[in-house]
Each structure stands twice: as C-alpha cells, then as structure tokens.
Amino acid sequence: MVVSAREITQSRALVTRARAIDFAERVRDEPSCEPVTLDLSGVEALAPSFFDELLGLISELSGHPVRTITIKNAPRPLADKDRRVASGRGAQIRETGDSEWEIRLPASAPA
Q1: Rounded to the nearest 10 degrees, what angle do helices 17-27 and 48-62 cross at?
Q2: Which of 62, 46, 51 lies closest to 14 in space, CA to CA?
Q3: Above pLDDT 90, what percent of the chain?
Q4: CATH of domain 2-106
C-alpha cells in the first residue's frame, strides 16, 4: 500500500497533529504483513509534532504486533529529532537510502 501526501493534502508542510490523522486512517485497516509506504513527494517540511502523532496513531489503529513503514521522498535527511520521536514511541528508525526511512513500529507504543 502506498499513501501519497499529494492524495491527502496540497500543503507542502506536514506540521499538525490533525493532518497526521488523515495519514493514519489510510493505513488503519491494512494487514501488518502488507508493506506500507508513505510517499512524501512535494513535502518540504516535516514537523516533530506531525511525526509523533503519525507514529502513535498508526500503532494504536493497526493493532498489529509490529508494523514496518517506509517513508519515501523524505524532505530532509533523518535527524536526531526524528530518532528521539521514534524512540519515544518505542520504534526503531533508520535511513535506508537517499530520502528514504524505514520505521519498525510496535503496536500500542507508549504515549
């Protein structure tokens, strides 16, 4: 399953927790064995508040023991702030290529 930022918003900045809900709802019913890719083509900014809410909602809504998510076309290299957000949610995150991140997110991660 590929979720495209362009299908959800025309905004070039993903900054609000409310916007994360739109993304998480697209992933909710997808089986955990199915790969999920969030394509951020056209996005120029990704705020920690959006990222934190996205990870929390996906883990809560999916209900699966572990979910792997790939972010393609990230607007910037993986930063320490992204690692801190992921760690706070009990997730593992790594940069797997140019503008690509992989996240292993446990279900019901800590709030």
Answers
A1: 30
A2: 46
A3: 48
A4: 3.40.630
